[in-house]
Amino acid sequence: MSDLLERRLQREIKARKQAETILEQKALELYQSNLKLQKLNEHLEATVAERTKELQESEARFKTLVESAGDIIYNASPSGKFTYANPVTERLLGYTTDDILQMHYLDLVREDMREEVQRYYGDAVKSKRKATYYEFPVVTKEGEVRWLGQTAQIDFKGKEPVMITAVARDISALKQVQEALEASENKYRGIIQNMELGLVEVDQQGKVIFANSWFCEMTGYSVEELKQSDLEKLLLTAEGVEKMRNRNEKRKDGEAEVYEIQLRRKDERLIWVTISGAPFYNPSGKMIGSVGIHLDITNQKKLQNDLLRAKEVAEKARQAEKEFLAHMSHEIRTPLNAVVGMANLLGTTQLNADQREYVNDIQYAGDILHGLISEVLDISKIESGEVEMVPSELNVNDVLSMVCKTMEHRAKERFNTINYKVDKSVPVNILADRNFVNQILLNLIGNAVKFTENGSINVDVSYRPNNEDKGSLIVSVADTGIGIEQAKLQKIFEPYKQEKDNFTQSKHGGTGLGLSIVKQLVKIHGGSIDVFSKKGKGSSFTFSLSIGMAKGEFRDWNDQEKSEENYAELEGKQILVAEDSYLNQKYIKGLLKQWGVECQFASDGQQAIAEAKKTKYDIILMDMQMPLINGYEATQEIRNNEKNPNCRTPILALTASALLDEKEKALGVGMDGHLTKPFTPDQLLNYLILHLGKSKRGLSMEAQEVIFSTLSLPDGIDANALSDFYGKDIEYALNMIGIFLRLLDKQYKVAVELLKENDLHGLKSWFHKQSPGLKMLGIVDLSNKYSQIELKIKAGSITKEEQKEIPKLVHEFAQQEEKLKQLKQILLNYTEND
Questions:
Q1: I want to staple 85 with a disulfide (CB 3.0 to 4.6 A). Which of 9, 74, 466, 820 is the partner?
Q2: What pLDDT, in 10s, does the model give residues 572-626?
Q3: Spatial separation of the C-alpha atoms in residues 269 and 274, rounded to whole Å
């Protein structure tokens, strides 16, 4: 029993010990777990504290950011009540935070826009759009309207919205700009509309974005039809398509331009429009299309075409008139040259005093007639308002004496006396245009005689110096005639105007051109003219001319002793004279015989070419209008043939035409000078001396030839060629350069038209015409190219490759302009420094 109890006790002790051991282990585990838990708790608390601090810092930063933002930032409940608003709200809208938190967002919206704004955000909630942007006007606390551009974020929980967060920016300034732009656009669209201008905007693909009603009316299409169509196919002709594509390419480069083009209307009728086109851009500066303003110019085009046709008719009539005048000039001048020439020859013979006076009268009358014909027939000068003024030495007293003597017979017929007085202040010899002075005096004294009866005409001449060698010649022509009404004084200088009524017109006649010509001549001569008149008492015309002082003694061609000094330089020279008039041949032969010059005559251009091939002459005198071949063609033939011994011989044009065109044409074909018939022995003598004897400065020909080679000429200008043609006559060279430059653009355009028409025959003639002129200007290389291409065209041996080079050769012609301007300036500088 005791053993049993002992064992039982031992078991209980053992079990208790085991339980205690387990309990101790569990207690240890619990302790260790508590320690771990404590550490974890401490870490968690630290982490929570740290995270809380970070959250607080983040919240503070966010709050600072929100409250310092320039835009309104707010939260609102799903119903639209404000739950938060940053301080900017008060600054922009004037409401405090407490005010805002009591308000619904619609309370701020301008009343007329509330329904629209509510509908917009209601639709956003229904369609569960989380992000939206909308612009609307709000009213500040002070009643000012501001525009807001609002970005709103709607947070949903399931299907229901839980909060709205929005950022609203003040866009009032931008809105004002937009409204101003829209107002401006509407304004100018209205202007365009009222001006009947068609406006159309297209995108980069050419699709219509906008078209105003005038464009629709102009084309016959509706806006919808235009928007649904390709404008190129709809409106443009085949020619217009290519033109428009070229314009569109320029538009892509940002170019704006104005151009004319034809459009086809819906009813197939063609109209002409002027388009002012320009690109337009988006805010980022990218081109997004083009805008074009269209003006219907169909009627203007029709009028323009009518005017062009009328102009062509007028030009043909003008050309016919010019040809008629040129012919009449030739018919008058040719015998006049013989009359004056024979008088000149007669003046060289032994004459008594009366005979000498008669010859002088014939010569002077011939000079006057020559001057009058020159001015009346030179229509190119009259039309262009340009008259060539050629100052020469003249004796004022002699000129006035001869004019008064010429008018003396007419004056006596009307029982008038002519008196003249030259003040002592007037220089004996002056530099002025003799023809101008003669014609002005003849017109004024002639009028005075015509409108005066039983009265007197008084001419007074005085002088007002300006500087040492220039001054003003002042001439007064007064009469005691019928006078002019004050109301008509201002019109008497107009063409075809004169003081007249039925009585005076029938009695005195006249065309009314005289005073108009006088005024033009006075103006060109650097002067002015005035008139004072009283009806029934008479008139007084006073004019001034700008004149120079003659240097040295006045030289008359009849002064045999002085002229003979120059004749020796001409003796033994050989001259070819191409002249078809027997009387003119006799006149020229008589002069040349006196000067010891040998001459050969040719009666037409063909004979002149033949003679020029046989013999080397010192100079050729070439009449322009001859049978078979005229002087222009003969000169070109001589100049273009390098084998001709006279290809570089000076050629002087003798023409009876007063037309300026004829002078330029003569110089253009390679002639060296121009004398208009009738010419005086002095004029011919001076020219011959210029080209055959000494130069104006008395230097030898060897010295003259050095001039051009010493100058720094532009590239492509041959100094030797210039020396061959001009020697040291830089004035003549400048004259030729001026003529060439004046005609260059016109000649170039002729060639361009020939190129367009692919007219090889016309181009051959053009190259033939330009080659001599280029050579005379020292442009030898291009001249040779022109001669070569001309010969190939003429022979029919030109290749396709060579034909392709023709446009380049023509373009080179235009490029000579700058080179010749440089050459002209170099020569001008040389003459100024010389």
A1: 74
A2: 889 999 988 776 787 788 888 888 888 999 988 899 999 999 999 989 999 887 8
A3: 17
Q: Are 189 and 199 in contact (CB under 8 A)?
A: yes
Token match 């001409």: residue? 570
* Axis-axis angle for helices 434-450, 396-413 (nearest 10): 30
Strands laid side by side in the 72-76 sheet: 82-85, 72-76, 160-170, 145-157, 131-139
Residue 207: phi and psi, rounded to 5, are -85, 140
Distance CA 779, CA 790 (A): 17
Q: Which two tokens stand for residue 783?
A: 């001249």
pTM of structure: 0.39
> From CA 747, how far away is CA 669, in angstroms rounded?
13
Three-class HEC string of 520-589: HHHHHCCCEEEEEEECCCEEEEEEEEEEEECCCCCCCCCCHHHHHHHHCCCCCCEEEEECCCHHHHHHHH
Phi and psi (nearest 5°) for 742?
Answer: -65, -35
Q: How many CB atoms lie within 10 A of CB 756?
A: 8
Residues in contact with 152: Cβ distance below 8 Å, sequence separation at least 6, in sequence order:
121, 124, 131, 132, 133, 134, 164, 165, 166, 167
Residue in 732, 770, 734, 724 with CA at minimum distance from that of residue 751: 770
Angle among Cα 37, 40, 41 to the nearest 5 degrees reads 85
Task: Output the pLDDT for position 566.
Answer: 55
Q: Are 690 and 710 in contact (CB under 8 A)?
A: no
Burial grade of 430 (CB within 10 A; 0-12, 13-18, 19 or more): buried
**Taking a C-beta distance cutoff of 8 angstroms, is the pair 698, 663 a contact?**
no
Give the side-chain half-sphere CA count within 13 A for 419.
Answer: 9
Any idea what DSSP says for residue 87? T
